[in-house]
Amino acid sequence: MVPLPIEDYALVGDCHTAALVGRDGSIDWLCLPRFDSESTFGALLGTEDHGRWLLAPADDAATATRAYLEDTFVLVTRWTTEEGEVEVTDLMPHGDRRADIVRRVRGIRGTVRMRQELRIRFAYATALPWVRQVAEVGAHALVAAAGPDAIVVRGPRLRARNHAHHSEFDVPAGATVDIVLTWFPAHREPPPPVDVDDRIAATVAWWRDWAGRGRMSGRYRDAVRRSLLVLRALTHEDTGGVVAAATTSLPEQAQGERNWDYRYVWLRDASLTLQALMLHGYEQEARQWRGWLLRAVAGDPADIQIMYGLAGERRLTEFELTSLPGYQGARPVRIGNGAYTQYQGDVFGEMMLALHGARELGLVEDEFSWPLQREILEHVEKVYRRKDRGIWEVRGEERHFTHSRVMLWAAFEYGARGVREHGLDGPVERWERIRDELRDEIERNGFDRGTGSYVQHYGGVAVDAALLQLPQVGYLAPDDPRMLGTVARIEQELLADGLVLRYHTDTGVDGLPGGESPFLACSFWLVEQYARSGRRTDAVRLMDRLIGFCNDVGLLSEEYDTRAGRQMGNVPQALSHLALVRAADAIEWSGPSGTGAHWANGGGPVPQHGE
Description:
alpha+beta, disordered C terminus, globular, 30% helix
C-alpha cells in the first residue's frame, strides 16, 4: 500500500495527541502519548510495514461515507456492502488522562464481516514489539511492548501472521463490537478497560460544550466553527501550547524535500491564536495560551526562540530518519526542527501585538506579564538592527526582510500604546523614537517607488506574500496606495492558478531547491486584504474557492496543489485554519451585511455590544 491523498485523512484527538484515520478505515499516523512522541503507526510516511491499524469490511467492494458528530472530533464512518451496513465510530476519549483510541462497530442492516489488521511499530518503525496475549474476564487482550512504550488492545481476538495481527468477525444488525487501544508506560501494568458508553457520551458532551461557548455567525460560520475546533484539538490540554500541525514531513510539493516537523509551538501563531479565541468567546483558552507564551519566553530575553516544544522545551534538534521512507517517497523525513536556533526578528512584534490584543480584548496584565514585555523590548532595543531569517525561516543568508522590519516596528508601537492607552509604565518616548526610526528605514529601503510596491527584502525587488500582513498589524491602511500597489504586484507575480505563493522559491533566497505549492494561509490573507480594501466581491469569490479545498470533514493542510487538485503539506494546519477564521471575520465585518464593527490596531475587528 501507499498512503492515501492527504485530504483522505480525518483527525481524531484527545487534546494531548491525535490520530489520522483514512477513508479506508486505516489509522496511518499516531504518536503516543503526545503530539511530538515517536510514532506507533507511521504508514503515513511509508507503507503498512511502518505501522497501521486497519478496521474495515472484509469486502473490498465496500463503500463508505463519513462525518464528525456535530461539533465534535468523534468520527462516524458508515460502510455499505452487499450483505449490509455498519457504522464505525472512532474517537480518542477526552478528559480521562489516558491515551485511548476507541473503535466501535455497530450493525445497521444485514450482517457485515469486518476485518482488522494491527501492525505495531514503535519508535518511528524502528522497534518491533514483543507481543503477548493476556487473559481477561470477558475479553481478549493483546499487549505489545518495546522500550518505554506499551499498548494493550481489547476486542475480538487477534492472531499473529507475518509481524502483524489479524482478526475477522461478523457484526449483525443491532450488535455492537468495541475495540480499544490504550498506551501505557512499558514498566507498568496495563490500565483497566474503559467504559466505552461512558467515554463516548462524555467526549461528545465535552466537544459540544466547548463549541457551544463560541460566537460564530455569518456566511462562513460552519467553517469558522470547525476551524476553531481544529485549533482546540491541536492545543495541548495541560500546557496550553498549540502545535502547528499533527504531523511531520508531509511534503509541500509532490516528491519534494521541503518536509518539516510541525509538531511544535511557534510564537508567531500567538497573534492569530489569541485574537481568534478572544473574538469568538474563548477567554479561558486565550488566557491559557497567554500563560504558555509567557512561561516559554521567561528568563533572559536574549534566549527567546521562535518555537518551542509543547511544554516550552527549548532543544528541538533536527535529524533525518532512515526508518521511514517518506510520504509517497518524499524524502527526507525530518524529526525536530532546526529553525529553533534561528534569529527571526518578526517574532518580537508578533508577541507584543498578541499581548496588546489581549489587553484590548479584556485580559488584564498581571505582575509578571508586563514586566516581561518591558524586558523583551529592552532586549529588542539591542538587536533590532540585525538581519534575520524572516517569517519563512529561510536557510539561506540573513537579510533585512521588510516584513520582519515592520514587525519590529510593531513591537515598539504596541509597547508604546500599552503605556499611552493602558497606563502601563515604560520609556515610551524612547520606544516611539525607535519606532519612528524603523518606519523611516522601511519606507526608504523596503518600498520600491519604481513599482509602487513594498519588497521582500532590502536591496531586492521581489515581492512576498508576508507583505499582506502589513495592514493586519496596523502599519498602514488596507487601501493605502502603497498597499494597493503591493497587492497588484502580488497578484501579478505570486498567483498560481488564483492562489498565493509565499514567494518565488527559484531565486535561491531560502537556500533550498525551488518548488512548492500555493500556501493556503497566504491566500486567506489576500481574502482579508480584499475585504478590508473594498473588494468584497473578490474576497467572497476567493474565500468560497478556498473553503472548497477543505476535505469532507472540514480539514485543511498547509498548501494546495491546484494542478493535481489535492492538499499538500502538514495537516491539519493550525495557521491555515486561523487565517480562515480571520478572513471570514473580515468578510463578515466588511458589509454590506456586516455589523459595522471597526478595526482596532489593524489587528482584528472589535465586536460591538450584543455580538
